[in-house]
Amino acid sequence: xxxxxxxSPGMQVELAxxxxxxxxxxxxxxxxHVVPHAERWDRDGAIDRSLIDELRRRRWLGAPVAAxxxxxxxxxxxxxxxxxxxxxxxxxxxxxxxVHDMAALSVARWGSPxxxxxxxxxxxxxxxxxxxxxxxxxxxxxxxxxETVARKQGDGYVLDGHKKWMTFGQVADCFxxxxxxxxxxxxxxxxxxxxxFSRSAQEPPAGTRASLLAELHxxxxxxxxxxxxxxxxxxxxxxxxxxxxxxxxxxxxxxxGIAQACLEACLDYTAERRQGGKLLREHQLVxxxxxxxxxxxxxxxxxxxxxxxxxxxxDPGATAETMIAKYxxxxxxxxxxxxxxxxxxxxGLTDAYPVGRYLRDSLVTEIIEGSTQIQQISIPLxxxxxx
Length: 387
Prior knowledge:
There is one protein chain. Helix content is 50%, strand content 17%. It has helices spanning 17-33, 38-44, 49-57, 76-89, 91-110, 113-124, 235-270, 284-313, 318-344, 355-365, 372-382; strands spanning 4-8, 11-14, 130-133, 149-153, 156-166, 174-181, 184-191, 197-201, 214-224, 228-229, 274-275, 278-279. Strands 3, 4, 5, 6, 7, 8, 9 and 10 form an eight-stranded mixed sheet that branches. The two termini are 27 Å apart.
């Protein structure tokens, strides 16, 4: 793997010794606890609940939340390395960190003092699992126009609506929910024990099949006033947008992990399989495909490192660079997975090899937290032409 961590204009910075050590630990843990089980989780449509306990014990749920708030206080490049390794092993496991940390960081940034006192430390320690309540049956990418409605009632709010495609919605303890309050998009943290809240399991999708998807049903769901995040009307423009920005960063790194997994699988397979009297990797066209995987996965990793560096320093261009990283890395993952199946031939279409799962998971990364097409519309409007 590349050891280049933070990249800013005109310079490259090596990983610090503690980041190298963290990377080694992450990779070893994923190889032992994730990789051997990922195919079974994919078939079963669920990760083992014991793995969630282990992630909690290691303080990897809430890792980017500040230590003074109870979180892991992990720097963003190290967090990216963690996300890459989890994505290399199982994209469903990576997606758990993504949605949980989106909720935890939203409470840390936008929650009222009362809500932070109540919920931040448990979220930051992973004792309470958070998830995102955004997509709806009739609303996907145009998230600001959600149909869920909220109304003021007494000292709190009542929500009515239907959410779909909630990652780890079957096990989450609370959801970051977007609703229309007096016609203005407003965010709420909805606990699952709130009156009027219910959920139902969804059938696993084609990719990230083990991510325990659920539908949420809000039927007069009552929450306290302190559970509103940010101001009325700031729900999408501030709260959800910042959550999605973190989600894109996590998905970008996870996409690098998928590309890396494809590369490693192909290096192993082409070093053993023979065609035309010689090893596959000795054929020039195969070498060309491997070269594309190597170069693009490293380029994607460097883009993620650059985004992490800019996010860490609070650079105003960090959001755009995160979007670029997610765009390039997710497309890199899909291209690598398609080539991986080609290199595996018919074997790549069977459950005996993981590359079919890599392709299904990679396609998900091109949809979530802003589809490839949304990125193509947005990036030219955000990035100056002279950079």
